[in-house]
């Protein structure tokens, strides 16, 4: 790898001014859910100009909509096409998917932004705007890796499949549709913002809703009722206990630095209607982390058991069981072996480019990589520029240097993984 | 008293058919907040026909609206007049206020009613409809007591002041306005539904709102945030502890049968916006009971201290103090001495009519009697027909027998308290 590094770095430096303009242009497109088409068409045109075989399509159909892993608040996607561009190899090499999502979460409260949320402003080496980190910066790194190798006249043996998908923020319907359309590879890289850490394992997650019942009464004689708010405290304790039990089992060293490898977060509570009445119903909504290698159904069963245990300990819960629903978003966990060849190649490339051994950890959140591993037999590693601390927040930004370092790492990794058919100017 | 009882009972029996029709007519008027005028005008006409000096007025003015005890969600009352009718005594006797509210709470979910919520249907001796128990039945008992004594040709020495007020359900602005208009007496009876128990003491109460802060984070790394929902659990514990401390101090035997004499009820909880985010804000709303003889400000200070103590124990609360607001409804507590002459007279009347010693307890909720005691130097006893278990609920009803028993008790009490100037046909 070392012999290729300088040429790639030099080429990337030449492309940098235009590439920053390209990222700014992407960030200026507010590709929130249902409005991804303009940016996707731009990306499709660019991939075509690079000579890739481009596939832009609107996902639809029974197979998708009734798939057990289909999760989306909508069922029609007219203004949200998926885009895939294939850079065909000469044959005989390992193929690689570069998977990134183009949908961004809403800007939120615009008053908390110092500039327009879709400004793309560059200040002190940082490019600002919703989606800069999550994950247009990562997508650009992937595109630049291809473009740079092309500029140097390289031909790879294995195919490189660049995927610009929709719906990741809602649970992965875009990547699911790409899988159902037949796209798969020997491995995948997903350049979500890992701050250049390598995440071979990623947590899955799913949303749950609990209904906790009480019995109303006047607040002045509250002892005549049963407070659903007090009962919720017991349920929250049971959830905390379940979280402890589930995490005690996890001895994977990749999780050593995470205080809680697979958290259960209760994010919403709502109950009662009148200050001087005893609340007779409380709703809780939360996100349950799912361990790499764990089946979603297994995690669901553990939650059900924890609630059943409540009923065994408490007469009220026996007669008024907590109701459990699984709703909304869902991300499948994923895992790649520590000694998977792509892991070794990626680590070597990181060592070369960053000048240090990369941190290898387990991802505390899910990505579309889970679907690729689970459904497409395509082991996926999550690795990219940017830090999650700014994703989904006002004044989101990405460090441009990290984007170009990541592009360099991706180019080196592609050479090694896919195999070099023609060395061109990197020779 | 005994010598008057049979005549009064006989007279009441004669009036019963028309009186039931009258109560039905009152219940059929949906006198919810802002719509009390039609019923109040009817009542005013009736009082006038009985020869009382009638005062119907719309409350207003700076003194009322800026009074420290004024609590109402509104500031204009055009369709909600107060009505007072005075039956003047011949002089030399003790005066008595009969205070009842005409406003009723909304019918709520009509599907839970077996009949129209304002039907006034009579089935098996029970009259059904919103407000039947809370408290048109009690108001009718008070009116019937006057009417019966009049029918028997009695003249009393002291004045009897019949008050049909608005706004009790929102905190007592109607009674406050009557006090500011100058109405006061040597004592008062408030025929709220006590199930014919005598309540010489009544709990006050007031509403509070708490804001509990957290720090947001992604649910997958929830340990990077601080959950306002978990912090709320700590606040709920502190409130429970404060309730215990406050109730431990209460050794009044009138409270012996109440599990919690002055409860603190948290009736509403609401916080967090997204299942996979750590909640950064939770709102709690509740009702704090205030002991008879306790100042509202004293109870408020104890709540403030309990929250300050949280800050001493917990760094998060020190840096992010729980915010406390007092808002909405407020009822002043009240207390009449156990050996107050009206207590003795009322107990004797109960013994005669019910054939047993009445139960004397402390009220678990506030009434307008608190304002009469506190601001008008008019000791108030709460006593009336009907049970609170049906008040504010679907299919509210009142046992008609209890209404007529109460009227009998009131008539006997008035004779004794106000003094008899002319015995008429009860002689």
Q: How would you explain this protein's 3D organization?
A:
The structure is a homodimer of 427-residue chains. With 427 residues, the first copy, chain A, is an alpha+beta fold. The first copy, chain A, has two domains: 2-202 and 333-426, 3-Layer(aba) Sandwich (Aminopeptidase), CATH 3.40.630; 204-328, Alpha-Beta Plaits, CATH 3.30.70. Chain A is 37% helix and 21% strand. Chain A contains eleven helices and 18 strands. The first copy, chain A, has helices spanning 2-28, 37-49, 62-65, 132-151, 173-180, 228-248, 296-313, 315-319, 341-354, 369-376, 400-418; strands spanning 53-57, 82-87, 96-101, 122-123, 126-128, 155-156, 160-165, 187-190, 198-202, 204-213, 264-271, 281-290, 323-331, 334-335, 360-363, 380-382, 397-399, 420-422. Chain A has a six-stranded mixed beta sheet with strand order 1-2-7-3-8-16, with helices on both faces. In chain A, strands 11-12-10-13 form a four-stranded antiparallel beta sheet. Chain A has a three-stranded antiparallel beta sheet with strand order 4-5-17. The model of chain A has no long low-confidence stretch (mean pLDDT 95). Chains A and B meet through strand 10, helix 6, strand 11 and strand 12 of A and strand 10, helix 6, strand 11 and strand 12 of B.
């Amino acid at each position: 790898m070392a012999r290729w590094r300088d040429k790639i770095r030099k080429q990337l430096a030449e492309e940098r001014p235009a590439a920053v303009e390209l990222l700014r242009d992407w960030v200026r497109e507010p590709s929130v859910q249902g409005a991804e088409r303009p940016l996707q068409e731009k990306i499709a045109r660019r991939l075509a100009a690079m000579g890739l075989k481009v596939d832009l399509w609107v996902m639809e159909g029974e197979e998708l909509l009734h798939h057990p892993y289909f999760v989306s608040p909508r069922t029609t996607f007219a203004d949200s096409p998926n885009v895939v561009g294939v850079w065909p190899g000469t044959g005989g090499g390992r193929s690689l998917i570069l998977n990134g999502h183009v949908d961004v979460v809403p800007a939120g409260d615009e008053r908390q932004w110092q500039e327009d949320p879709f400004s793309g402003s560059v200040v002190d080496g940082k490019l600002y705007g919703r989606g800069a980190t999550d994950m247009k910066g990562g997508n650009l790194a992937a595109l630049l890796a291809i473009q740079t190798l092309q500029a140097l006249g390289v031909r790879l043996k294995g195919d490189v499949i660049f995927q610009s998908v929709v719906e990741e923020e809602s649970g992965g319907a875009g990547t699911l549709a790409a899988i159902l359309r037949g796209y798969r590879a020997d491995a995948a890289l997903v350049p979500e913002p890992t701050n250049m850490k390598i995440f071979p394992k990623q947590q899955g997650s799913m949303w749950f809703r609990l209904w906790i019942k009480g019995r109303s009464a006047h607040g002045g004689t509250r002892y005549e009722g049963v407070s659903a708010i007090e009962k919720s405290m017991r349920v929250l304790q049971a959830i905390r206990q379940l979280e402890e039990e589930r995490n005690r089992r996890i001895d994977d060293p990749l999780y050593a630095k995470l205080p809680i490898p697979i958290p259960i977060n209760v994010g919403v509570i709502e109950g009662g209607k009148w200050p001087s009445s005893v609340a007779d119903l409380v709703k809780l909504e939360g996100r349950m982390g799912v361990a790499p290698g764990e089946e979603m159904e297994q995690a669901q069963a553990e939650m059900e058991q924890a609630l059943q245990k409540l009923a065994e300990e408490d007469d009220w819960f026996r007669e008024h069981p907590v109701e459990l629903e699984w709703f909304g978003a869902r991300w499948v966990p994923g895992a790649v072996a520590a000694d998977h060849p792509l892991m070794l190649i990626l680590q070597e490339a990181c060592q070369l480019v960053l000048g240090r051994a990369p941190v290898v950890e387990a991802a505390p959140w899910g990505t579309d990589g889970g679907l690729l591993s689970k459904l497409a037999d395509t082991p996926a590693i999550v690795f990219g520029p940017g830090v999650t601390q700014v994703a989904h927040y006002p004044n989101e930004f990405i460090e441009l240097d990290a984007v170009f370092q990541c592009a360099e790492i991706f180019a080196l990794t592609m050479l090694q993984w896919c195999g070099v058919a023609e060395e061109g100017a990197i020779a």
